[in-house]
Amino acid sequence: MKKAAKKAAAEVTETAAKPAGKTADASAPAGSAEKKAAPAAGKTAPAKKAPVKKTAAKKTGSANAKKTVPAGKAAVAKKVKPADVVVPGGAAVEKGTPVKKIAVRPPGGESPTALVRRARRINRELAEVYPYAHPELDFENPFQLLVATVLSAQTTDLRVNQTTPALFARYPTPEDLAAADPEEVEQILRPCGFFRAKTRSVIGLSKSLVENFGGEVPGRLEDLVTLPGVGRKTAFVVLGNAYGRPGITVDTHFQRLVRRWRWTEETDPDKIEAAVGALFPKSEWTDLSHHVIWHGRRICHARKPACGACPIAPLCPAYGEGETDPEKAKKLLKYEKGGFPGQRLNPPQAYLDAGGRPAPPLGAA
Ligand code: SF4
């Protein structure tokens, strides 16, 4: 099984990009420069660096995480520093309160240090698999990103990206959208689903931007969460990708994957955010969010994770929850990993350079 994991990993990473480096892009979060130097080219299989026999070899979803981590990797040892204990894990997080550091508390028998090492190693591997990772919503300014993120609830980023060109062409500023006829906006947003509620949210937040923030999207968490329809998740997307301020985006993919990896057993998004935040330096939070979400969308799916084609299988305690046959697993891959178009109509150049393809406009075949 280890061989299979290695082989699959090599196949997947071969499909990964060989970018010449991440180009400057409005969507690129600050602090992503280190990813630029981590192309997939030359990478064979993570298993090479992760001689983990027990996890990849055993088809079990409950393997002791200790068994998945090779002991004493000198390369990471210096960087590993579990977060300080400031408040007890699991403490409730107020809507506008920045996350406090909490104690690293592994859910299994793994030591806190081993968990931090394994978590950071997974993130490094994913950075090589997705060196072009970026927000998958098309946007040209913070206002567009804020609106697009609100619209992305209960639908795909692709559908939002296919819808927002008409919206922003008709209502390019918060002032325009604040004064819009709701019925007109509803017609534009219909493809996104829940279009009446979403219309209320985007018009409401536009009014609040005009009345309370001079028509500008605020760059502080505590201000963003005062806007109608904007919670911590949306606020962190905006802060991380429009303002370069680190944040963890706990969406459905993030929740699923961090539990599979046994980074935490929390189920409340705010507690997950705090627990995972304790495993990584703050400067990595935004890119970490992209890596995890990209992996969830492409390989580690909710119903059928493509374990047999997963580059981090040797590090994953949940290996075997999905398809382990490499050929069958390969057929489960999505977007650029499966040879399909991505979600953005206007993706960053690094994505295109890596062989990624833009999404089609609404109504295109
Ligand atoms: S696809 Fe998901 S569950 Fe399967 S090995 Fe990869 S990360 Fe683990």
UniProtKB/TrEMBL annotation:
<keyword id="KW-0234">DNA repair</keyword>
<dbReference type="InterPro" id="IPR000445">
    <property type="entry name" value="HhH_motif"/>
</dbReference>
<keyword id="KW-0540">Nuclease</keyword>
<dbReference type="InterPro" id="IPR003265">
    <property type="entry name" value="HhH-GPD_domain"/>
</dbReference>
<keyword id="KW-0227">DNA damage</keyword>
<feature type="binding site">
    <location>
        <position position="310"/>
    </location>
    <ligand>
        <name>[4Fe-4S] cluster</name>
    </ligand>
</feature>
<comment type="similarity">
    <text>Belongs to the Nth/MutY family.</text>
</comment>
<dbReference type="InterPro" id="IPR011257">
    <property type="entry name" value="DNA_glycosylase"/>
</dbReference>
<comment type="function">
    <text>DNA repair enzyme that has both DNA N-glycosylase activity and AP-lyase activity. The DNA N-glycosylase activity releases various damaged pyrimidines from DNA by cleaving the N-glycosidic bond, leaving an AP (apurinic/apyrimidinic) site. The AP-lyase activity cleaves the phosphodiester bond 3' to the AP site by a beta-elimination, leaving a 3'-terminal unsaturated sugar and a product with a terminal 5'-phosphate.</text>
</comment>
<dbReference type="Pfam" id="PF00730">
    <property type="entry name" value="HhH-GPD"/>
</dbReference>
<feature type="binding site">
    <location>
        <position position="300"/>
    </location>
    <ligand>
        <name>[4Fe-4S] cluster</name>
    </ligand>
</feature>
<keyword id="KW-0378">Hydrolase</keyword>
<feature type="domain" description="HhH-GPD">
    <location>
        <begin position="151"/>
        <end position="298"/>
    </location>
</feature>
<keyword id="KW-0479">Metal-binding</keyword>
<feature type="binding site">
    <location>
        <position position="316"/>
    </location>
    <ligand>
        <name>[4Fe-4S] cluster</name>
    </ligand>
</feature>
<dbReference type="InterPro" id="IPR005759">
    <property type="entry name" value="Nth"/>
</dbReference>
<dbReference type="GO" id="GO:0140078">
    <property type="term" value="F:class I DNA-(apurinic or apyrimidinic site) endonuclease activity"/>
</dbReference>
<dbReference type="InterPro" id="IPR004036">
    <property type="entry name" value="Endonuclease-III-like_CS2"/>
</dbReference>
<keyword id="KW-0411">Iron-sulfur</keyword>
<keyword id="KW-0408">Iron</keyword>
<feature type="region of interest" description="Disordered">
    <location>
        <begin position="338"/>
        <end position="365"/>
    </location>
</feature>
<keyword id="KW-0238">DNA-binding</keyword>
<protein>
    <recommendedName>
        <fullName>Endonuclease III</fullName>
        <ecNumber>4.2.99.18</ecNumber>
    </recommendedName>
</protein>
<feature type="binding site">
    <location>
        <position position="307"/>
    </location>
    <ligand>
        <name>[4Fe-4S] cluster</name>
    </ligand>
</feature>
<dbReference type="Pfam" id="PF10576">
    <property type="entry name" value="EndIII_4Fe-2S"/>
</dbReference>
<feature type="compositionally biased region" description="Low complexity">
    <location>
        <begin position="10"/>
        <end position="49"/>
    </location>
</feature>
<keyword id="KW-0255">Endonuclease</keyword>
<dbReference type="InterPro" id="IPR004035">
    <property type="entry name" value="Endouclease-III_FeS-bd_BS"/>
</dbReference>
<keyword id="KW-0326">Glycosidase</keyword>
<dbReference type="Pfam" id="PF00633">
    <property type="entry name" value="HHH"/>
</dbReference>
<keyword id="KW-0456">Lyase</keyword>
<dbReference type="InterPro" id="IPR003651">
    <property type="entry name" value="Endonuclease3_FeS-loop_motif"/>
</dbReference>
<keyword id="KW-0004">4Fe-4S</keyword>
<feature type="region of interest" description="Disordered">
    <location>
        <begin position="1"/>
        <end position="66"/>
    </location>
</feature>
<dbReference type="InterPro" id="IPR023170">
    <property type="entry name" value="HhH_base_excis_C"/>
</dbReference>
